[in-house]
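Q: Give me the 3D complex with adenosine-5'-triphosphate.
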Amino acid sequence: MALLRTDKITMQFSGLTAVLDLNIEINDREIIGLIGPNGAGKTTAFNMITGVYKPTKGQVYYNDKDVTGLKPHEITKFGIARTFQNIRLFKELTVLDNVIIANHLRLKSNLFGSVVRTPGYRKEEQQIYEKSMALLKDVGLDDLKDEKSSNLPYGKQRRLEIARALATDPKLLLLDEPAAGMNPQESHELMGFIREIRDKFDIAILMIEHHMQVVMGVCERIYVLDYGVTIAEGLPDAIQNDPKVIEAYLGVD
Ligand SMILES: Nc1ncnc2c1ncn2[C@@H]1O[C@H](COP(=O)(O)OP(=O)(O)OP(=O)(O)O)[C@@H](O)[C@H]1O
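A: Here is the predicted complex, encoded as structure tokens.
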């Protein structure tokens, strides 16, 4: 059984078909790439999977359960987390507080508990602190826990975003252009980092990425979109040499 399966998901914006009949299948622990020229429909596909958009047509299945059209926070609770193309941190907050806040999606105590600060609530808070610190250690940011997040260099802000996503205990992590804005050294490190988090957290990863070295270096299978249509799907070597893929990329240059 696939962890995630989309069945012909389609998204139309008035006259424009941003994604047409997209079938994606992701198994446990796979690292999958979603690539294509600008405007190909990649982010729209993410938005359909994560509940930002309800597909005009087609279904999204997570562990064989139909999750089409659920709200983003419900999708998160099922175990799908994401990062965004434009980093969305709480810039004024510390690195640690950014992760703590993300954890609160999982908090069990009710409002009463948090206002009265019941022992149950305080215990949960302590657990969240410990879990957040462990996550920061996993992504190599524990030394920077008290730093304002906007002071971090770009590559580290991206890692912090990933730590925030991991705080919701996903089984599937969607990364929207994780290498964007990274220097060559950072993007090289990113490849090892992505494999590390897959192994450590036992998750599958679907990533949108324009940086071909990163895509080819880390993805086990790749889907290629062009004008909303899936023009190729397969192993990195085959994708790299696929004439349709080459043409799609050269066509926009
Ligand atoms: N909310 C929207 N309303 C109308 N059109 C939209 C909307 N969102 C996306 N589009 C259009 O759908 C198409 C696909 O956009 P999308 O952002 O999914 O592409 P992308 O592959 O993620 O591109 P990029 O690599 O540049 O981020 C584009 O033509 C875009 O202008």
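A quick observation: Residues 119-138 form the longest helix (20 residues).
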